[in-house]
Amino acid sequence: MTKAPLLQIKNLTVAVGEKLILRDLELTINAGETHVLMGQNGTGKSTLASAIMGSPAFDIISGEILFEGENITEESPDKRARRGIFLSFQNPEEVPGVTLENFLRTAKGAVTGEKPRLMQFKKDLRVEMERLGVAETYAARELNVGFSGGEKKKAEILQLLTLNPKLAILDEADSGLDVDAVKTVSEGVSRFRNEGNALLIITHNTRLVEGIAVDRVHVLENKKLALSGGAELMRRITDSGFAGLQTNPDAPRGAPKGDTQ
Amino acid sequence: MSGEDKRALIPDEPDDAAREMYDTKGVMKPRFQVSSGLTSEIVSAISDEKGDPPWMREFRQQSLAVYNETPPPDWGPPLDGLDMEQIITYVKPDARMEARWEDVPEEIKDTFERLGIPEAERTGLAGVGAQYDSEVVYHSVKSEVADLGVVYTDMDTALKGEYGEMVRQHFMKILPPREHRFMALHGAVWSGGSFVYVPDGVEVTIPLQSYFRFNAAGAGQFEHTLIIVGKGSSLHFIEGCSAPKYNVANLHAGCVELYVGEGARLRYSTIENWSKNMYNLNSKRAVVDKNGIIEWVSGSFGSHTGCLYPMSVLRGEGARMDYTGITFAGAGQNLDTGAQVVHAAKNTSSRISAKSISKGGGKSTFRGGITVAREATGCRVSVSCDSLMLDSRSRSDTVPVMDVRCDDVDIGYEAKIGRISEQAIYYLMSRGISEDDARAMIVNGFAEPISKELPLEYAVEMNNLISLEMKGNT
Ligand SMILES: Nc1ncnc2c1ncn2[C@@H]1O[C@H](COP(=O)(O)OP(=O)(O)OP(=O)(O)O)[C@@H](O)[C@H]1O
Ligand SMILES: [Mg+2]
Predict the structure, then answer these.
(1) B432 in reach of chain A (CB within 8 A)
(2) Quick check: CB of A50 below 6 Å from ligand 1?
(3) In chain A, what residues touch B423 (CB-CB under 8 Å)?
C-alpha cells in the first residue's frame, strides 16, 4: 500500500515577535501513521502544533505547510479545521457562556457542513462522554470554565472523537491525568485512529502511546527535528533523557538558547 | 422538553432575513395624524380624537405648559438631532382596537406576523397586546386569566371604562410631568399602551405580553403602561418594541408605571430593538410595598440615542428589587442605560447586574443611581457592571452615583471592563467555526446570564439581534 502524504512541512521557519523558534523544519506525515514528537521544555513543540493549526500568535517567516497536497500556509484556523486538522491544546481555553454541548454541535456543523440534528447529537455525545468518564452534566457546563486540568484534557479528546478529523495533533494530552484517566484517554485515541487518518502526539513519556502503534519518533532541538527514528527512540529517551542522543550534525548541541537568528 | 433542551434549540446563527424583518416598513396609511410640532391646539386635537375625559384633557394641557417652560436635561447624551417641530406626536392607524386577530387589518397583521405575533400567544402566553404606531390594535386575554379578575386592556379603554378612577389615581403619579421635559411631553401627548390590574391574592402563572411597533416616519411614540399588582399577587409582564428605519429622527418617550403591592411580585421584561435613528427616552418606575419584589429584565438594542434608567422605589419594609440588563451599542449609537433604586424603608435590598457591549465606535454608559434614606437601616445593595468592548474605537463608561444617608447598610459595587479574548476566538476557530461566528458565540455567551432570564422566544430574539449586530459592518 502506498501512503499518501497528509501533512508536509517544508523549510518552516517560525518566530514569535523577534524570537525565532523553529528554523527550516521539515516533517511529513502520511495517512495511516502515528508520529510522536518529543523534546525538552521550551524547544518549540507547541509552537509547531500552533503553526500547523494556524495560530495568529506566531509568524511564519518562510517555508510551506501542505495538507493533502494543498498549500495551507496562509489559511485561517477555521479553514484548516474544516480540511480535517485538529489540535488538542496543551492549555485549552476557557470560554464563558458557551456550553460544551452547544459548542460541539456548532463545531460539528462547521466541519461537516451540516449541523447535526439535536436529539441524535445529544445521544451520540452522551455515549462518548460516558466512555470517556465525563459526567453527563458537563454537556451543559460552560466550555472548560472551572474544569480541572484533567477534565480539560478529556474534553479535548471528546472534541477529537466528535469532530473526527484526518490529522489530530495531541499536545501533551496526557499531562495532568491520573493513571486511570491516561488509560481512558489512550483508549479514546485508539478509537479515533484508523488507516485513513494520522496522529502527531507530543508527549514527555510513553504512557499515552502504550496501546498505540508508533511509526515515527522525532526529537525537536535547536529549532528543528534534530533526530528521527522508530518507536525504540521513545523508549531510549524516557529511560535516559535527551543527553546521550546522537543528533543531526547540522544542529549542533549546546548552542545558546533564545538566539534570534 | 426540559428547559435546558429548549434552550439548545436557540439558533447560533441568525436568520439573514431577520434584520430585514425588523426594518421592513408596513404600507398602512394612517387615518388621523396631527401636524408636526407641538401647540395647545394639537394637544386638544388629540383629546378630541381620543374622547378624553375632562380630567385627562386638563392633565394634557397642564403637561404641555410644563413642557414649554422646562429646558432639556443638561446631563446625559446630546439630543441635538431631535427637532421637536418635526416629530409628529399622534398617528392613528386606520384600524379599531380588535379582540380577534382575524379582524386586524391585513397590512398591520402582516407586520406583526413577521415579528412572530400572535404566534407568541399560541405558544403559551396569558394575554397579548399589539400596538401599531400610537394605538393599540389588538388585545386579548385568555379567559382563565380574565376569570381570576385580571384586567389586561389598552389604556384608552381603561381610562374611559370601569377602571377609569383607578387610572386617574395612578396615572403619572410616580412619573410626574414636572420631573423632566420628556415626561412633560409624554403627559401632553401620550397615547396607547397597556393597563394591567391584578387583584389581591392572584397568581398569574403565564406571562402577559405586549408588543409595540412604530411604523410612521418622524413619529413620536408615547405609550403609557400602567400595571397594578395587588397584595400577595404575582405577574410576569413582557414587552417588546421595534421600529423600522427611516431617515428622519423618531422619538420614543413612553412611560411605564408599576405598583407592586404588599408581598406581591412583578417581573417586567423588555427587549427593545429600535431603528438606528430613534431617540429612546423612556421612563420606567416602580413603587414597591412591604416585602414586595420587583424584577426588571431588560435588553436594549438599536436606537441612535438611548436613555433608560428604570427606577425602583422600595417604600415598604423588606421590599426587594432585582435588575438584570444588557445594552448593545454599535456604530453611531450612544446608549446611556442603568438602573436606579431608592431604599426608603428598613431591610430593603437591591441587586443590579448590568452588562454592556460596544462595537464599531459605539458608546455605552452605565449610570447607576443608589439612594439610601436615613431611616432605611439594614439595607443591602449590590451592583455589578460588566462591559465588553469589541474594538479599540468603542467606548464604555460607568457612572455610579450613590447617595447614602444611613450607616447601617451593606453596599457591594463591582465594575469590570474587558475586551474580547483573541485566544478564545482562536480556540473556537480551531474547531472549524468562522471568525464572525466565533465572535458572536463569545458575545452571546457574555449575554447568557441575561438571556437565560428571558422567556424562550425572547432569548431567541436576543441571540439573533446580537448575531445581527455582530455581522454588521464596522
Ligand atoms: N506568545 C509567546 N511569546 C513569547 N514567547 C513565546 C510565545 N509562545 C512561545 N514562546 C516561546 O517559544 C519557545 C517555545 O515554546 P513552546 O511552547 O513551543 O515549547 P514546548 O516545546 O511546547 O515546551 P513544553 O514542553 O514546556 O510544552 C519558548 O521559549 C517559549 O517561551
Ligand atoms: Mg508545549
Answers:
(1) yes
(2) no
(3) 93
Quote the CA–CA distance of B387 and B446 in Å, as a whole number.
Answer: 9
Per-residue pLDDT of B70-81, as tens digits, reads 887 777 777 777
Q: Specify which residues A106 forms β-bridges with.
A: none
For A125-155, how does the pLDDT look when each residue is reduced to its tens digit (9 = 90+)? 999 999 999 999 999 999 999 999 999 999 9
Q: What is the ipTM of this complex?
A: 0.93
Instruction: Return left, alpha or beta for B190; rule: phi > 0 is left, psi -120 to 50 is alpha, else beta.
Output: beta
Structural domain contains residue A256: no
Backbone angles phi, psi at A105, to 5 degrees: -70, -40
Domain ranges of chain B: 20-308, 422-474
Number of domains observed in the structure of chain A = 1
The answer to whether position A1 is within a domain reads no
Q: Are the beta carbons of A45 and A37 closer than 8 angstroms?
A: yes
Task: Work out the end-to-end distance of chain A between its first and last CA atoms, rounded to an integer number of angstroms.
Answer: 42
For residue A4, give the 3-state DSSP assignment.
coil
The amino acid sitting at A116 is: P
Domain that holds residue A50: 7-244
Residues, chain A: 261
Span A188-218, pLDDT tens digits: 999 999 999 999 999 998 888 888 999 999 9
Domain presence at residue A254: no
> A108 in a domain, yes or no?
yes
Give pTM, 2 decimals: 0.76
Kindly state the cell numbers that stand for B297: 429584565
According to DSSP, residue A186 is labeled: H
The CATH number given to whatever domain includes residue A213 is 3.40.50.300
Q: How many CB atoms lie within 10 A of CB A155?
A: 23
Nearest-atom index, ligand 1, CA of A220: 21
B404, amino acid identity: V
